[in-house]
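Weekly modeling sync, notes
Attendees: S.R. (lead), two postdocs, one rotation student

Agenda item 3: backlog of single-chain predictions. S.R. asked that every request posted to the team notebook include the full sequence so nobody has to chase files. The rotation student volunteered to paste the first one in as an example of the format we agreed on. Action items at the bottom.

Example entry:
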Amino acid sequence: MSSTVTVLGASGNIGKLLVPYLSARGYQVRAVGRSRPSFDLPGVTNHRVAYSEQEALNQACAGTSAIYMLIGLEYKTNVWQQEWPPLTERLILAAQFSGSKLIFFDNVYGYGLVSGSINEETPLNPNTKKGAVRAKMDEMLLQAITSGQIRAVLAKAPDFYGPGITTSLLGDRFFDLLINKQTLEFFGNPEMIHNYAYVGDLAPALEKLANSDFIGNIHLPTGPTITGYQMAEILKTLAGNDLKVAPMRQSTAWWLGVFIPILRELHEMMYQSENPFNFSSIKIMKMFPDLKITSYEDGLAQTIKWYKNHIPAKNK
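Predicted structure, as returned to the notebook:
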């Protein structure tokens, strides 16, 4: 097996962690982005590629053992509807051209609202426009796998957090308020269970999936379910002060969406935070027992430390 791999979307949240991880493991890494990435690491070459051009994608993936698909598109429904399906088709063709295994970093929107545990056998049943796009993408990939056109893994993760992760529900706004206002703004109902993946646990899992015989749908390592109020207790201990919990409920998000575009886009996804959300990663942990799931105590401690070094202390 070739030790050369391609990382598409190398400068994004997951890519900026995966590329150094693979470099440290001795891989030759083609770090690819719409703008040329700027990694200065052993074995890493940086490439600018137009994802809209099939031949450019084919050449970026040629001669590699694995393609890690970490591309992100602008978080707008119309952009997703217009761009994700044709991009997914181009990625399938690139994987077929190169013979590389495609590791497609995926989200959970295609499942829709689920009662009970969300596992790999949960059917696609989207209840939002963005969910319908993701379900269509999953169906395209699964059909390409079933037909023998490509070898691929749909590696799904729920909301994730960690050092350097700013565009997330547990991202810059959440930790800015925590550090400067002693306020925890929870998106949705803090009484509901939810679970989150620590970003540091994802790269080892993606590498193992690339080097295994597994193909199909799999859930990435994710922490146990926790309510917003339970997380608040952990954060109170870590922050060393009393914290106020400020829920942002659906009606508030809808009203603020008039002024804050991202909330307008997130509003339809609030069913995940207004209802119990129980994402299971039991399967991958049984497949690879040496993988770890970082505790919320440790993961949040590392995240707070990072944010304190990157967010100005406004009220000091």
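Discussion: group reviewed the output briefly. The longest strand covers residues 28-33.
Action items: rotation student to repeat for the remaining queue; S.R. to check formatting next week.
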